[in-house]
Every structure is written in structure tokens, then in C-alpha cells.
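We were asked to recover a plausible sequence for a given structure. The inputs and outputs are reproduced exactly as logged, with field labels preserved.

PROBLEM: sequence recovery
POSITIONS: 253
GIVEN STRUCTURE:
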């Protein structure tokens, strides 16, 4: 009889253990799976070399040197560039070029642009402030045998080649350039600012083979981006679009 009772006690203890600890183990496994999934996603992103883009309002972070893009500062920039202040101020204050900015943004959205900066290299989309080598891999493939789309796929891009309305914006570079880059950008976007010296270096390296075309894509959560885009176009009316473009991206001005 004592042996039977001991067995019964052991079985009861086993049932109690299963009853109380199984739910706890299930919860722990779920939590572990969640964190493993998060880690896997981060590793996957790093392996694909995903670069920065602005798509949504950024989380609070340490303040970077501020580029002054308010209306008063835009007008001051125009003066320093030697523009006719009266004409520039009237253009900016009237908002007469706001519709052009809006049309370029709609055009970009129709092509699949959702964040900035976004670049089309001979119609192949490359997104974000990528390393210079990433852009060069697509450009070199295009120059060699027109396979920039395959090079873009290797970077984690879709690799689809789209037809663009080229030449409707401000263009810098050779008219007969073999490589035509169209950039959709936002002057207040930190990633666009980061990609500015990269594109400048690319323009210098492939001089005579490349052209760069600007298209406006101000993001709604950047309060100064719309007027900054208009300011560049207003400067363009006086023949100094690229001077204003480069000045707007100059650090902490």
C-alpha cells in the first residue's frame, strides 16, 4: 500500500507541474520567437545593405547642425547668390511655382517613389543614401552592357526599368550622356543631404558620361521642404537653379 500511495503522490505532483508550468513555457517560447524574429529582420536588412530614406516622421534623436530653410533664410541665400531679390521674393511669396512642385511629386509617386532620396539611373530605381560604390555598380553595368537593372537587383532593389519624362526638370551634365540620373529629393531630408556629396563625387568621376536631373519631392512632415523646393525653382527662373540647389544642401547654413 505505501508504494501505491507514493506513486499516486508522484503522479499528482507531475500533473501539478504540467498544469502550472506549461503555460509559462509557452509564453517564454513566444517571447523568444519574437526576439529571434526581430534579430533576423535586422540581420537581413544589414545583409541587403538597406540605405537610409525618409518615408515617415523620424523618431526624436540627437540634434544635428541645423540648415536654415525658413523663408527669411531662403531670401537671404538668394541675396548671397546675387539674385534679383525683388523678383525672387515675389516668386517665393506668391507661391506661383507650388503647382510645379506638386506635379513633380505626383509624377514621382506614380513611378513608385515613396521616400527620399530616390534615384532613377537610366530608368532603374535605386533608393536611399547608398554608398558611392552601390551607385557605381549600377552605372558601370549600364555603361558596359546595359545591365544596370541586374546590378540593382544585386543591391536588393526591384530592378524594374521604367520610362521617365526626362528633360522636363533642371539638368546638369552632358545632353548626350549615356547615363541619365533623375533624382527625387527633399531639401530638408537628412538622407538627401547625406547623399549630396556622394552624387557630386559621381558627377565628377563620370563627367561627360552622366547627367543629373532634379525633381521635387518635399515630404509633408518637413515643414520647410515645400518652400525650399519653390526657392530652388525661383532661383532657376534667374538662371541659378543649381547654385541654389547646392547651397541648400550645404551643411549647417
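RECOVERED SEQUENCE:
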Amino acid at each position: 500500500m505505501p508504494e501505491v500511495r507514493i506513486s499516486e503522490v508522484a503522479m499528482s505532483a507531475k500533473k501539478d507541474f504540467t498544469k502550472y508550468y506549461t503555460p509559462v513555457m509557452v509564453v517564454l517560447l513566444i517571447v523568444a520567437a519574437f526576439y529571434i524574429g526581430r534579430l533576423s529582420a535586422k540581420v537581413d536588412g544589414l545583409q541587403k545593405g538597406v540605405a537610409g530614406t525618409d518615408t515617415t516622421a523620424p523618431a526624436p534623436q540627437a540634434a544635428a547642425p541645423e540648415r536654415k530653410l525658413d523663408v527669411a533664410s531662403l531670401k537671404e541665400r538668394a541675396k548671397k547668390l546675387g539674385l534679383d531679390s525683388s523678383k525672387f521674393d515675389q516668386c517665393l511669396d506668391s507661391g506661383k511655382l507650388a503647382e510645379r512642385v506638386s506635379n513633380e511629386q505626383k509624377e514621382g509617386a506614380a513611378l513608385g517613389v515613396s521616400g527620399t532620396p530616390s534615384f532613377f539611373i537610366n530608368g532603374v530605381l535605386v533608393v536611399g543614401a547608398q554608398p558611392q560604390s552601390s551607385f557605381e555598380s549600377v552605372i558601370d553595368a549600364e555603361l558596359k552592357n546595359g545591365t544596370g537593372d541586374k546590378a540593382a537587383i544585386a543591391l536588393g532593389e526591384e530592378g524594374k526599368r521604367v520610362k521617365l519624362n526626362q528633360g522636363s526638370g533642371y539638368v546638369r551634365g552632358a545632353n548626350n550622356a549615356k547615363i541619365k540620373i533623375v533624382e527625387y529629393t527633399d531639401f530638408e531630408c537628412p538622407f538627401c543631404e547625406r547623399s549630396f556629396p556622394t552624387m557630386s563625387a559621381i558627377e565628377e568621376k563620370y563627367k561627360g558620361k552622366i547627367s543629373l536631373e532634379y525633381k521635387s519631392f518635399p515630404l509633408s512632415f518637413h515643414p520647410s521642404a515645400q518652400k525650399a523646393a519653390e526657392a530652388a525653382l525661383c532661383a532657376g527662373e534667374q538662371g541659378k537653379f543649381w547654385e541654389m540647389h547646392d547651397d541648400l544642401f550645404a551643411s549647417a547654413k
